[in-house]
Design brief:
This protein has 709 residues and is of the alpha/beta class. The chain folds into three domains: 329 residues, TIM Barrel, CATH 3.20.20; 193 residues, Rossmann fold; 122 residues, Sandwich (Immunoglobulin-like). The protein is 28% helix and 17% strand. β6 and β7 form a beta hairpin.
Length: 709
C-alpha cells in the first residue's frame, strides 16, 4: 500500500504537525514559511532548506546521474521508463540526503523536496525553458508527469521517498524577459483543454505533494496569489492536500512588476490568504507584520505550517524517525546500474528525422571520420539546465572515438562558436572555416554537431545570452553554424547532422544524408549516439513537439490562445510533425478492430496487430488519436493513448488498448466538459493522422468511426 493511500498514517502526521505548530511563537511560525527554515531547537526542529531540484537527476549538489533533459525524456513516449527514472533519482536523492545529514549540511539543494517535474505546456518553440517540459501535448505531459512523480515519491506505506512538485501553476511558457510583469490571458476553454490537465492529473492521480505557482499573472491574478488557481481549482475542485510553494522571489513581483499590491505586506498577505504556504525567497518575513496588522489570520498561517510539517513528517524528518531509505548509501549515486539506465534512456530519446539509407553506418567501410561543430566536444550540450555533476561525461566526439577505436582516423574542428562570429577573440572572424574545409576534404563521412546549449536557451538569468534572456528569436541555427553546415554539404561527402538542442529548429535537410534530433542527451549521450548510428541500437524516439518551418507562421509569442499552435490546433504543414520519428526497421498495423462502433459508458476497446516487417529488432510507439467531428473550436485531433511495443524482426504482437468514455469529451467555451453527440474518429497507428506524417513515413493510420449518442 502506498503512503498516499494510507490515510490513517497521513492523519497521524497531520495531528502531530498541528500539535507542533501550536507550541510555536509567531516569530517562529514566520521563520518556517521561507525556503531556508532555521532550526527551532527547543521544539526539536532541525534547519531545513526546501529548495532542491531533480528535473532529470539530482541537480546542483555535486555528483549525480545526469539523465537526458526532460524534453528528451518526453521523446521516449515511455511511461514505465519515467517511473524507473524517478525511482533512480529519488534513490540518489536519499543517498545524498543521508550523507548530508550525517555531516549537518542543511544548505540549499540538500533536501528531499524536489521541485520537479515541470508540466507546463511547450506551446511556442521560442520558449527557452521548454526544454524542461514534456512537450506540447497535455495528454503526453500528464502521463509522463504522473509516472515520474510516482517514481520520485515511491510506494512505501510509511514514508515518502522524496516529495515531488508540479510546476509552474499555471499557464506559464514565456516570454522569459517578461515573466515578472506579464499577464497570460487564456480562455477558460484553453485553460481546461490545454493548460490545466497535466496539473490535475499530477494532483488527482499521482498525489503530488507540492505545487509551485508561476511568476506570471493568469487572467489578471498573480499565480502565486491567485484565488482562482490556488483555492477554487487546486484545493476546492481538485482536492489538493499538500503544500503550495511560490516560484523564487515571485511574491516580490506582486508590487514591483504586476503592480497589484502596493508593498511587501500587501503582497505576502495576498499570497498567504489565497493558499501559498511556502515562499521561495525571504519576503514572507513580512508575515509577522501582516498578522499583527490583521491582514492575515494567524489560523491561516497555522494551516500553512501544518501543511509544511506534514510533508516533513511524511519524509521521516521529524522526531528522529526511521525510514526504509536510511540505509541508502553514496554507492548508489551515478552507479554502474544508473549509468547503464542513463545510456539506454539516452538512446531511446534520440529521434531520427531523416535517413536516406546512410544509417546505420558500416564501420568496416570507414577509414577517416570528420567531426565538426561547436557541440561536438561540448559537455554543456549534453546536459541542458537544472543539471547535476556526472562522474563521467561522454561527448559526441569522445563517444565516436571510443566506439571506433584506433582502426579509424579522426579529424575534428570546432567549426565556429555557438553564437559569435569567431572562436578566437582577436581574429577577423569566421576563423575556423579553413579547418572545416580541410576536415571535409580528408573524411569519408562527416558528423556535423550543431545546436544550442543552456547558456543560450534556458531560464532568464541562467542563460544570460545576447538573444532574448533564454528564449530564441527564431528557429534558425545561430551564429555561423549555418555556414559550417553548408560548407560540409558542399564538400560532396556524406553528412550526418546531429542537433543537440532543447527545442525545435528549422534546418533545410534537402542535401543532408541523415538528421538526428539528440536533445540534450545526458552525460552518456556521446556513447548512446555512437552505438545507435552504427546500428548496435535502433532509433525509437518520437517528437514531443511540432517542428515548424519558421516562426512567421506562429502567433505572437505573448498570445496564449491555442489557435494556430501545436499539432492540435495548427493549420499549416509541419516541417516534422509531433509524434514523428524514423527507425531502422518498419512496422505494419493489421486487424484493427473496435469492440463497438457506438460509444458506451465503458468506452471503446481497441485490438490490433503490430508486425516488425524489417530486419532489425525495435520498439514501436503505438499512438491513438481521437477527433470529435462537427464541434466548433475543437482540436484537430488529440493523442489519447500510446504504448511501447518491443518486437523482434519479423515478430507480430497483438495489442489491446482501452479508451475511456472521457477520451471522446471536449471542453466548451464555458469550460464545461461535455461529450457531444455526433461522430468521432479514432486513429490507430505509429504517428498522427496528418498528410505530412504519411509523406515522411510512407504509411497511413487506420481510422475507425465511432458514433457518439
Amino acid at each position: 500500500m502506498d503512503l498516499v493511500k494510507n490515510q490513517a498514517k497521513i492523519d497521524e502526521f497531520r495531528k502531530r504537525a498541528e500539535e507542533l505548530v501550536s507550541k510555536m511563537t509567531l516569530e517562529e511560525k514566520v521563520s518556517q514559511t521561507m525556503n531556508h527554515a532555521p532550526a527551532i531547537e527547543h521544539l526539536g526542529i532541525k534547519a531545513y532548506d526546501w529548495w532542491n531540484e531533480a528535473l532529470h537527476g539530482v541537480a546542483r549538489a555535486g555528483t549525480a546521474t545526469v539523465f537526458p533533459q526532460a524534453i528528451g525524456l518526453a521523446a521516449t513516449f515511455d511511461e514505465d521508463l519515467m517511473e524507473e527514472l524517478g525511482d533512480a533519482v529519488s534513490t540518489e536523492g536519499r543517498a545524498k540526503f543521508n550523507i548530508q545529514q550525517k555531516f549537518s549540511d542543511t544548505d540549499i539543494y540538500k533536501g528531499l523536496t524536489f521541485w520537479a517535474p515541470n508540466v507546463n505546456i511547450f506551446r511556442d518553440p521560442r520558449w527557452g525553458r521548454g526544454q524542461e517540459t514534456y512537450g506540447e501535448d497535455p495528454y503526453l505531459t500528464s502521463r509522463l508527469g504522473v509516472r515520474y512523480i510516482k517514481g520520485l515519491q515511491g510506494h512505501d506505506e510509511d514514508h515518502m521517498k522524496a516529495a515531488a512538485c508540479a510546476k509552474h501553476f499555471a499557464v506559464h511558457s514565456g516570454p522569459e524577459p517578461e515573466r515578472h510583469h506579464f499577464n497570460a490571458v487564456a480562455s477558460v476553454q484553453d485553460m481546461r483543454e490545454t493548460y490545466l490537465p497535466a496539473f490535475k492529473a499530477c494532483v488527482q492521480e499521482a498525489d503530488v505533494e507540492t505545487v509551485m505557482g508561476a511568476y506570471n499573472r493568469t487572467n489578471g491574478e498573480p499565480c502565486c496569489g491567485s484565488k482562482t488557481l490556488l483555492k477554487d481549482i487546486l484545493r476546492d475542485e481538485w482536492g489538493f492536500k499538500g503544500h503550495v510553494v511560490s516560484d523564487c522571489w515571485a511574491i516580490k513581483d506582486f508590487h514591483t512588476g504586476h503592480m497589484v499590491t502596493s508593498d511587501e505586506i500587501e503582497s505576502v498577505s495576498l499570497a498567504m490568504n489565497n493558499g501559498c504556504d511556502l515562499n521561495c525567497g525571504d519576503l514572507f518575513v513580512y508575515l509577522k507584520d501582516a498578522v499583527e496588522q490583521g491582514k492575515v489570520e494567524e489560523s491561516r498561517l497555522d494551516e500553512a505550517l501544518v501543511n509544511l510539517f506534514t510533508t516533513r513528517m511524511k519524509l521521516g524528518m521529524m522526531d528522529g524517525e526511521k525510514t526504509a531509505f536510511d540505509g541508502i548509501t553514496m554507492a548508489e549515486v551515478d552507479s554502474r546500474e544508473h549509468k547503464k539506465l542513463n545510456l539506454s534512456t539516452s538512446a531511446k530519446s534520440l529521434v531520427l528525422l531523416k535517413n536516406d539509407g546512410i544509417l546505420p553506418l558500416d564501420k568496416s567501410k570507414i577509414r577517416t571520420v570528420g567531426v565538426i561543430g561547436p557541440n561536438a566536444d561540448s559537455r554543456r550540450a549534453l546536459v541542458g539546465n537544472y543539471e547535476g555533476t556526472a562522474s563521467r561525461y561522454v561527448t559526441v566526439l569522445e563517444g565516436l572515438e571510443d566506439y571506433l577505436g584506433d582502426d579509424v582516423t579522426f579529424r575534428y574542428s570546432e567549426g565556429c562558436d555557438l553564437v559569435r562570429d569567431r572562436v578566437s577573440g582577436l581574429s577577423k572572424g569566421d576563423d575556423r572555416i579553413s579547418e572545416v574545409k580541410s576536415v571535409c576534404e580528408d573524411s569519408d563521412v562527416i558528423f556535423v554537431v550543431l545546436g544550442l546549449d543552456a547558456g543560450i536557451e534556458g531560464e532568464e538569468g541562467d542563460a544570460g545570452n545576447e538573444f532574448a534572456s533564454g528564449d530564441k528569436k527564431d528557429l534558425k541555427l545561430p551564429g555561423l553554424q549555418g555556414e559550417v553546415l553548408e560548407t560540409a554539404v558542399a564538400s560532396g561527402k556524406p553528412v550526418i547532422l546531429l542537433l543537440l538542442v532543447g527545442s525545435a529548429l528549422a534546418v533545410d535537410d534537402s542535401r543532408i544524408n541523415a538528421v538526428i534530433q539528440c536533445w540534450y542527451p545526458g552525460a552518456m549521450g556521446g556513447r548512446a549516439i555512437a552505438e545507435t548510428v552504427f546500428g548496435d541500437r535502433n532509433f525509437e524516439g518520437k517528437l514531443p513537439v511540432t517542428f515548424y518551418k519558421s516562426t512567421e507562421e506562429l502567433p505572437d509569442f505573448t498570445d496564449y490562445a491555442m489557435k494556430g499552435r501545436t499539432y492540435r490546433y495548427m493549420t499549416n504543414e509541419a516541417l516534422y510533425p509531433f509524434g514523428y520519428g524514423l527507425s531502422y526497421t518498419s512496422y505494419d498495423y493489421g486487424n484493427v478492430k473496435a469492440d463497438g462502433t457506438v460509444l458506451t459508458d465503458d468506452g471503446i476497446d481497441l485490438s490490433f496487430d503490430v508486425t516488425n516487417t524489417g530486419k532489425m529488432d525495435g520498439r514501436e510507439t503505438v499512438q491513438i488519436y481521437v477527433k470529435v467531428s462537427g464541434v466548433e473550436n475543437a482540436p484537430n485531433y488529440q493523442l489519447k493513448a500510446f504504448k511501447k511495443v518491443a518486437l523482434k524482426a519479423g515478430e507480430t504482437a497483438n495489442v489491446r488498448i482501452s479508451l475511456s468514455k472521457e477520451s471522446f469529451g471536449l471542453f466548451d467555451t464555458e469550460g464545461r466538459f461535455v461529450i457531444p453527440s455526433g461522430k468521432a474518429v479514432v486513429y490507430v497507428g505509429g504517428q498522427q493522422p496528418d498528410p505530412r506524417s504519411e509523406q515522411l513515413l510512407g504509411r497511413k493510420v487506420t481510422a475507425i468511426e465511432i458514433e457518439l449518442p
